[in-house]
Each structure stands twice: as structure tokens, then as C-alpha cells.
Amino acid sequence: MSDDVSLAERFEAERPGLRAVAYRMLGSLAEAEDAVQETWLKLARADVSEVKNLGAWLTTVAGRVCLDMLRSRTSRREDPLPEQEGSVRLPDPVVTRAGRVDPEQEVLIADAMGIALMVVLETLSPAERLAFVLHDMFDVPFDDIAPVLGRTTVSTRQLASRARRRVQGAVPAADTDNARKHDVVNAFLTASRGGDFEALLAVLDPEVVARSDGGTRVPSVLRRGAADVASQAITFARFAADARPVLVNGTPGVVAFAEGRPMSVMSFTIRDGRITGLDILTDPDRLSALGLSA
């Protein structure tokens, strides 16, 4: 009995890191929890008496569980790609109040794991995503990843390299000063609420891309260019009676409410003091699952 208790305690110590792996692999908070639970079940059924590094063993097991889930999702084609045939699919955001991020949330959103990067991860193949996430984000050796994929170490290294090039090409370096980003977000909100089109143009990059994921009940929208995005921001501000500053995956964002119910979660990508990307979750079902409150 004591051995079982000890194993459970060791697993609980690893749980935050395993959730972080699963979130990066799946882009879904609920599915990440399912993957962590499945990892526990596999641990409970396994003989780990000879395992020297339980944390590393659990990470690779969680990776394998997530890989199977991604492959199943792909085979069913239940989710569109982020910008497939006019549809927009955004990963789940991690929404917290400024200054109130608990240690588990810090692990979940570490390594600049913004929504923009998560969107790019959604476009990778399951094998590319596993190789990139485990190696580049969690320092798992390619020799340990290769057996999970059923590939050689050289082939696995190539997968991660290809994924890395796609990520770096699609997600250029953004501003890292949260205070400066907070000022930019505030300027965006003030201009939107005031219907100040010129002020919005000043804070938006000319090539800004705005993605809105409305799920199955609300139309999704993909807009490009400062003028189009500014017009949409002014229109949306008329319906959002209350907009609260929050942290979305650790960076300044906004939750908009109407009649006490969340209308959207907005995540901003900011570069050189201008908004280059705006990712907006408006899916009522997923917003409800986040437990947001005005």
C-alpha cells in the first residue's frame, strides 16, 4: 500500500509538467486533463521498479498518449485547420488575472506559449508536433522520442527541424515587455470604445491578421489588414458593454462581457509597439467552460 501511495505522490508532483506537455500537444485544456489521467492509468499498470527517471518516463508516456489522440482527431477530421476553408480553429486560452497566476498555471504557459504559437502548432502533423514539443520545449532527447514515433533518431531529428522552421517562419519574435504590451492593448480598447478609426490604425500593424473562432454556433471570421480589423473592432465594441484586462497565456489580453456573460477572449500579438495579430475566441460553449466571471 505504501508503494502505491508513494507512486501516486510522485505522479502528483509531475502532474503540472505533464499538463503542460499535453496542452502544447493538444491545444485543449479538457483533452490535456484526459491525457494526464490516461498517463496515470498507464503508470498504475506498469512495472517502473527499474525506471531511473520517472519524470522523463512519464513525459514520453504522456507524449505517446497525446500522439494517439492527435492521430485519432486527424483521422476523424473533427477539427478544421486554423484557417481551412474559411473556418478558424483556435486553441483553448489560459486566462488569469494579472499578478494571480498560480504555480501550476505558470508551468502551463511557460516558454512564451502564446496563442499565436499554439495556432502554428495546430498546423503541424502529429509526428512533427510531438518531436518539436518534446525536444524543443521539454529537452527530451531524440533517442527517447524516436521509439514513440517508431522512427530512427535521425528521422525524428529531421521532423523537429522541419517543425522548427515552420514555427519560426510563422511566429516572428514579438515584444516581451508586458508593461509596454499592456499600454498597446489599452490604446486599442480606448480607440475601439471611442470609435476612433484613426487611433486604431495607429496601433494596428498594416498587415495585422485577426482570427475569430465562434465554434459551431457563431460564424468564424478571418480578417486581414488594419482598415478591415479596425472597422470590426469598432463594431464589436458597441456590443461589449464591459471589457476587462486579463492575462491570456501570460500576456496582456482582454475578456469582453455583455449582461454578465463572457462574449470573447482576445489575445494580442504585438511587435514593435503595434498589434500584428489578434486571436479572438467567441465560441459560447468553450467560453462557458473557462469559468469566466465579470
Write the layout of secondary structure elements.
Elements: H1 2-26, H2 29-45, H3 54-76, E1 95-96, H4 103-108, H5 115-122, H6 126-137, H7 142-149, H8 153-170, H9 178-194, H10 197-203, E2 204-213, E3 221-224, H11 226-239, E4 242-248, E5 251-258, E6 261-271, E7 274-281, H12 284-289
Parallel strand pairs: 2-7
Antiparallel strand pairs: 1-4, 2-3, 4-5, 5-6, 6-7
Account of the protein in words:
This protein is α+β, with helices and mostly antiparallel strands. The chain has two domains: 2-93 and 115-170, Butyryl-CoA Dehydrogenase, subunit A, domain 3 (Up-down Bundle), CATH 1.20.140; 178-289, Nuclear Transport Factor 2, Chain: A (Roll). Helix content is 55%, strand content 17%. It has twelve helices and seven strands. The chain has helices at residues 2-26, 29-45, 54-76, 103-108, 115-122, 126-137, 142-149, 153-170, 178-194, 197-203, 226-239, 284-289; strands at residues 95-96, 204-213, 221-224, 242-248, 251-258, 261-271, 274-281. It has a seven-stranded mixed beta sheet. A hairpin with a 2-residue loop joins strand 4 and strand 5 (251-258). 37% of the residues are buried.
